[in-house]
Amino acid sequence: MYKTAVLLFIWFALVGCAQVPEEKQDERDPLQALNRPVYDFNMDVLDAYVLRPAAVGYSTITPQPVRNGIVNFIENLQTPVDGVNAALQGKPSNAGVSVARFLINSTVGVLGVFDVASEIGLELEEEDFGQTLGVWGVGDGAYLMLPAMGPSTARNFTGDIVDNFIVPQVALTTPQSLLVFALKALEARASLFAQESLLNESLDPYIFMKDIYFQRQLFELHDGNPPLEKEPETYEEDFLENL
């Protein structure tokens, strides 16, 4: 397994030596020459032959109420991470909501299968350590296309590693942790069926996915209220400011 991973990385590195056309260069994506082959591998091999067929089968045979319960259960496992990161970001209210959600859904909600907390007004507030680093002023860093995992950034990839140490997986065996990971992947892929046509019809699916990823990260970092981009000044405005 380790040898295969090393060979795949060497192959990506060799293929990635190709020059990126100037019109597609992006300062957010300095590793684009390496990221594009990884993207092609993820989409043309892993997704086409493994993940998408598995997600289709999963969504076909699993009743929606069961899927909802699975999503609720996984989100409940993640709630302590939300609470810790909310506290680190200086959001005591969100941290309190996360603690209350975890206690209520883990008990009354039968280990989180039923989202009782949302029904009484305690809405889910998702926070992660990548967002925490962003609140602390850490920049995105290089855009990354990770094998089998998809888009990320240097900051968010670091955040994911930290979050994995916070998640209370000490209560789960290794097979249980792998099962949770697999269910998360299947649910995430099944949720994208409706958006597939947008990706396939875009002029450059790689750039389309990257732009959507950055828009989503900005939206989440600012809790749904991203700052408006400043309009470029006109010649008249510049002239008046210098009077």
TrEMBL record:
InterPro entries attached to this UniProt entry: MlaA
Pfam family, one: MlaA
Span list, region Disordered: 224-243
Organism: Pseudoalteromonas ulvae
The keyword Metal-binding appears for this protein: no
One Gene Ontology cellular component annotation held by this UniProt entry: membrane
GO BP term (any one): intermembrane phospholipid transfer
Keywords per UniProt: Signal
UniProt feature, compositional bias: Acidic residues: 234-243
Family the UniProt entry places it in: Belongs to the MlaA family.
Lineage start: Bacteria, Pseudomonadati, Pseudomonadota, Gammaproteobacteria, Alteromonadales
Protein name (Swiss-Prot/TrEMBL): ABC transporter
Annotated signal peptide: 1-18
The organism's place on the tree of life at top rank: Bacteria
Residue ranges with Basic and acidic residues bias: 224-233
